[in-house]
Specification:
The complex is a heterotrimer of chains A (239), B (351) and C (351). Chain B has one domain. Helix content of chain B is 76%, strand content 1%. Chain B is built from 14 helices and 2 strands, in the order ααααααββαααααααα. In chain B, β1 and β2 form a beta hairpin. In chain C, α1 crosses α11, α1 packs antiparallel against α12 and α2 packs across α10. Chain C is mostly helical and 351 residues long. Helices cover 74% and strands 1% of the residues of chain C. Classes of the chains: A alpha/beta (239), B mainly alpha (351), C mainly alpha (351). At the B-C interface, α4, α5, α11 and α13 of B face α4, α5, α11 and α14 of C.
Chain lengths: 239, 351, 351
């Protein structure tokens, strides 16, 4: 569904991604892992048009989206969920959801908010509560719910479980799996929490210093002791 | 009969609330305290003066057409009092002019400078420059208005056959007498000011919390990048915020000359009181702006009055109150009263 | 223009350039080098002026009474201020030695008081940044002015006070001599600052401005630097205030306002280019010459402008400031980056 070809990108004069080529298949969860500073977040930002692209292409469903600005990319059905700053803290949950559907007609908005809430029924209890009063996990769910209102076909998550307790992280990951299973959304998941992410992955890539070191099945990644030791802190014997 | 100090506090706090609301709102958008805020409100004061001048001139013409003699003419002029139409007119025009200037300040000065990467200090200096510009404009207007009044008075004098003096001046003016109501036995302002403040507060709250536009405005203020990815035109929202804020300033300013002496540079005298009110309330809270406005007004009038009469401090030191409030707030509770964690404070005090 | 007029034009320019060079050099150290948004610059200038108005005539009176044996008698030193000072001046005009002694003592006292006030003013700078710090310093400066305006012993309260003429001994050359002395002092201040800021001290200030955390992690006590800089800067400005008061012969608190003594120095600094002292000279020069020229040719300009020339000043100034901020915020002479050792090594390597 989304292909990245020989991508070289960075911030201003600082190049972060080097000749990155990856393919993210439809309706699958593709996980991108790697140590700090490996360019994982930059990859997502680049796809979303937030960085400087020196060369290479980004193809989404046969459309070259390489030079499109973020709001155009968003309108093509791609959603980007950054780690922080992804909800309006001082607005209530209800207001957040309404803002997510800012450009929709009233009826359409109501319908989509309703279906979004079906996906995250816990949020129904907090409609009048300010987003900043939600816990970390609930906030992530709100961010995902807001994203769903735009009916994305591809969702890119940047370390959604960072700063979450393991149990909550698990819940968030499970809801991501639900997104794939129930709504057929393609997922690109960037994670620091490698083991948990690989458990739900259909496909895995390893990025180190802005280069693709591994691209294939999660199990192969986990079973490779060399890679495992150096970059994951987990070997196949521990899995 | 309401004691003067109560009247004073009511009027002053109503005006201060409207002004600090506006200042806080503009701060929340551009993160810069706007030094021109007070002078823009004085533009509203001159709107009121202009309405008065035009009304008096037309009244004078009517009187002369009906062949009045000098005595009855002056009786007529002196008995002029603002009618509801006048209040509506100068408040509306004050609001309008204020918002136009506010939008101009945002679009022509602050927005382009922000886009060029100006830092907070440079933006502050830009607002000071805008303040000076408006000050010159007001001075020029005061001169021109006076010229107009004098030339009309001469015109009318030659028609009347006696010296016509409308009794208005364009500097150091105070319009108390046109606001006094015989039937109420007091100034109408004492009722109008708090009513307007309350009404506008309610209106603003309704807009901000019950309309789609209002929610979008609050979202844009809080997280402009997230709002723009959701399709909000953040620039339009900021423009709206500036229009509202300075509109309120213009409206508040239109009421000021009904009780206080006004000059083009009057803004310089109370701009720091407005800052103090916003800062005390917390520059990022609208509710705080209201609280701050009430508190500063109470400190400056009743509290200071008590202190000065009991401790023998000259009343000229009243200006120190907002300055102290500002400095102390920034030093000890920088996020203002609205964001104070009251529970934490009480538990610490209890210990 | 006739020679006499040209000469007094020149003197006027030299005077203002001297005074403002002292003020802006100190502001440049605080804001340009160290990044401290000192919107309370006026504090130092007022401190110097108030020290002069409080202290100089009292000391002169004491010396007069001791040395002449004909004590001057008075009951209300504010109302009889003119009489007292003119008697002192008569005596001083024949005693250049005493005059210069008084000058020296006054300047030292101003430096001391300025340093103390600066030290107190440095406390907010420990905890606050940017706009909050700027506003707090502004408020502190206003408080000092209010006190100076209302507390009679300092500067005669609302009436102001005359100060002894410490240059009267120069007779008909009084103005030339005083300007000469002021320019000489300005030159000394410039050289001292230039020396001080081209040592590692200056580099540390710039480093603190650019990245405070890095500097403090390298073991430098940022707070101590701040205290030093603000104390020195305020003391220096006090010097200018004292000289200004002595030249003009009187002190009235309203003359030490935030536009003239905080805002204009900022404009001069920005115009010339912050962060370097030559820029300061440039900025002060351009500003003073432009304003003096406009002021001198005021009458000629009247023909071309549809309004009172008095307002042209602020109008042009405000537009110029915004133009600078938009088009060339770094000023005429931008700061040169600090050259480090590397280029030399590379040079050596290539040979």
């Amino acid at each position: 569904m989304l292909r990245v070809e020989n991508l070289n990108a960075g911030y201003g004069k600082l190049q972060v991604l080097h000749e990155v080529s990856l393919f993210f298949p439809e309706r699958k969860i593709s996980v991108v892992i790697g140590p700090n500073g490996s360019g994982k977040s930059t990859l997502l930002k680049t796809i979303f048009g937030l960085t400087k692209i020196y060369s290479g292409r980004i193809i989404f469903e046969n459309n070259d989206i390489t030079s499109l600005p973020p709001h155009k990319i968003a309108s093509m059905g791609i959603a980007y969920l950054p780690q922080t700053n992804n909800v309006f803290e001082n607005l209530t949950v209800e207001e957040n959801l309404r803002m997510a559907g800012y450009n929709l007609s009233k009826e359409e908005l109501e319908a989509r908010v309703a279906s979004s809430l079906e996906f995250f029924p816990q949020l129904k209890l907090y409609m009048k509560r300010k987003a900043k009063q939600l816990s970390g996990g609930e906030r992530q769910m709100l961010a995902i719910a807001m994203s769903l209102i735009r009916k994305p076909r591809l969702m890119m998550f940047d370390e959604p479980t960072a700063a979450l307790a393991p149990k909550i992280a698990h819940q968030v990951l499970r809801s991501i799996v639900k997104l794939r299973d129930e709504l057929g959304i393609t997922i690109i998941l960037v994670e620091q929490n490698a083991r948990a992410a690989l458990e739900i992955a259909d496909k895995a890539s390893l990025l180190v210093s802005g280069r693709v070191i591994f691209d294939g099945l999660p199990k192969d990644l986990l079973e490779n002791p060399e890679l495992g030791r150096m970059y994951l802190g987990v070997t196949s014997s521990q899995v | 009969m309401i004691p003067p100090i109560v009247e004073d506090t009511i009027v002053y706090s109503s005006v201060l609330i409207l002004l600090s609301l506006g200042l806080t709102l503009t701060y929340m958008t551009t993160k810069v305290p706007n030094f021109a805020h007070a002078t823009i409100s004085i533009v509203g004061s001159y709107v009121t003066l202009t309405v008065l001048v035009l009304s008096l001139i037309s009244l004078a013409r009517e009187a002369l057409i009906s062949q009045a003699d000098s005595q009855s003419f002056y009786r007529l002029i002196k008995s002029f009092s603002f009618a509801p139409l006048h209040y509506a007119l100068f408040m509306a025009l004050g609001f309008l002019l204020g918002s136009l200037i506010g939008v101009a300040q945002y679009k022509l000065v602050l927005k382009p400078l922000s886009q060029r990467g100006a830092n907070v200090v440079q933006l502050m200096i830009a607002t000071i420059a805008v303040d000076m510009f408006l000050l010159s404009m007001l001075n020029i207007y005061a001169d021109k208005l006076l010229e107009y009044v004098v030339s009309k008075a001469n015109e009318l004098s030659s028609i009347a056959g006696f010296k016509v003096n409308l009794g208005v001046q364009t500097r150091d003016f105070i319009l108390y007498s046109y606001d006094y109501s015989k039937t109420l036995g007091m100034q109408r302002l004492v009722i109008i000011a708090p009513v307007m403040a309350a009404a506008l507060l309610v209106a603003l709250s309704l807009v901000l919390y019950r309309t789609k536009l209002g929610v979008a405005l609050r979202a844009s203020i809080e997280n402009p990048s997230l709002a723009s990815t959701l399709g909000v035109n953040v620039d339009k929202m900021y423009t709206l915020a500036w229009a509202l804020s300075l509109g309120l300033a213009g409206l508040a300013g239109s009421l000021i000359p009904l009780k206080y002496l006004v000059n083009p540079s009057t803004g310089q005298l109370f701009v720091l009181s407005i800052f103090a009110a916003s800062i005390l309330g917390g520059l990022n809270s609208l509710a705080g702006a209201v609280i701050g406005g009430v508190l500063i007004a109470c400190f400056e009038i009743p509290v200071f009055n008590y202190l000065s009469s009991h401790l023998g401090i000259s009343s000229a030191y009243r200006t120190v109150i907002p300055l102290l409030a500002m400095a102390l707030t920034l030093l000890f509770i920088p996020r203002g009263v609205a964001r104070l964690n009251w529970k934490k404070l009480f538990s610490r005090v209890r210990r | 223009m006739p020679v006499e007029q040209a000469y007094s034009f020149l003197l006027s320019i030299l005077f203002y350039m001297g005074i403002y060079t002292i003020v802006v050099i100190s502001l440049n150290m605080e804001a340009g080098y160290m990044g401290l948004p000192n919107f309370g610059k006026m504090m130092g200038v007022a401190a110097g002026a108030f020290t002069t108005s409080f202290f100089t005539w009292r000391l002169a009176l004491y010396l007069h009474n001791r040395l002449t044996g004909e004590p001057i008698v008075y009951s209300d030193y504010v109302r009889e201020n003119a009489m007292i000072v003119s008697r002192i001046n008569e005596w001083l005009s024949a005693s250049p030695g005493i005059s210069l002694l008084l000058l020296l003592v006054t300047l030292i006292a101003s430096l001391a008081i300025g340093a103390v006030i600066g030290y107190i003013a440095s406390y907010p700078a420990i905890r606050l940044r940017e706009d909050y710090l700027g506003i707090t310093l502004l408020a502190m400066a206003e408080v000092i002015r209010v006190i100076g305006y209302n507390y009679k012993p300092i500067a005669g309260g609302t009436l102001g006070m005359q100060v002894p003429d410490l240059f009267r001994w120069a007779g008909q050359h009084r103005f030339s001599v005083s300007v000469l002395i002021i320019v000489a002092i300005a030159l000394i201040v410039y050289l001292v600052y230039q020396r001080m800021l081209s040592t590692p001290f200056g580099r540390v200030l710039r480093a603190i401005r650019d990245d405070e955390e890095a500097v403090s992690s390298l073991g430098r006590d940022i707070v101590a630097y701040r205290k030093r800089v603000i104390s020195a800067g305020t003391a220096t400005a006090a010097l200018a205030g004292a000289l200004y008061a002595l030249y003009t012969g009187s002190v009235i608190a309203t003359a030490y306002d935030r536009v003239t003594w905080t805002f204009w120095p900022w404009v001069m600094m920005m115009l010339g280019g912050a962060g370097n002292n030559v820029g300061v000279l440039l900025g002060v020069g351009v500003f003073v010459i432009a304003r003096t020229t406009i002021y001198t040719y005021k009458n000629m300009l009247e023909a071309y402008i549809p309004f009172n020339v008095v307002w042209l000043d602020y109008l042009l100034l405000s537009v110029t400031i915004i133009a600078i901020l938009m088009l060339r915020p770094q000023g005429i002479l931008p700061e040169k980056p600090i050259r480090t050792v590397k280029p030399l090594i590379r040079q050596n390597e290539s040979t």
